[in-house]
User: What shape does this take?
Amino acid sequence: MTLKTTLIDATELAALPPQGVLIVDCRFDLADPDKGGRDYLDGHIPGAVFASLDHDLSDLSRQAEGLGRHPLPLEPAFNAMLSRWGWQAGMQVVSYDAGSGALAAARLWWLLRLAGVKRVAVLDGGYAAWLAAGLPVESGAAAAREATRVALHYDASQFLVDHAALADGASGQLLDARAAPRYRGDVEPLDRVGGHVPGALNRPFADNLGNDGRFKSPAQLRGEFVAVLGSTVPSDVVHMCGSGVTACHNLLAMEHAGLHGSRLYAPSWSGWVSDPARPVAKG
Assistant: This one.
């Protein structure tokens, strides 16, 4: 089976042997956090399990630690989730969202990379692309799976940047994935204050997608990121957004474009502004 490490299309996914792939439905709506779970029960890709951004791909109990609105799950919880799903080393993982956004799906993609798993891809175009291809769906809860033993470890030094590294200015070039009005501080619907970290550049994650709602070609993405980042090498790029979720969309797009090795500031803007002493830039 061909190794898929960034994106996979619906027909490619449909052709994979079911026993060799773990499909994860990551649909999520910030305005209605339970909607993804309801939508999953109404219909999903056959064999898919469900992951909630709030409860599986984040640890909301850690918000008070200044880690933003979607703190990363701790290793034991992440391993336990993979164990429940029956994941085994070498198994291809495919995550998907409702459509073109690939938001929580990209978050799971990145979490697995953080834990050393390379055979993971995001369904390009999401569930909408699966339906558009006329492929089968099923409804109801996932069948129980035989638990496996999982003991993965996060490689924070290679994939993450923390508050301290960001504050001392030695972490690299920040790239903010939020929409331009939020980056500028014109509006701020979610966090304590609007604006951006001083020195951060802006690349709205929605710019990664073409008019068809799918990711642009690697060549086009590469050209657009280079236009924003200039001579900055990919390994010096640090992604952020509002809470460390849509930033993974930019990270996925860069990897798909062959721009390898960028990192994530997981607390992102919501974590940065949790300390009123940290500087804020506008405009």
About this structure: The first helix runs from residue 10 to 14. The chain is about 30% helix and 10% strand. The mean pLDDT is 94. Residues 156-272 form a domain with the Oxidized Rhodanese; domain 1 fold (CATH 3.40.250.10).
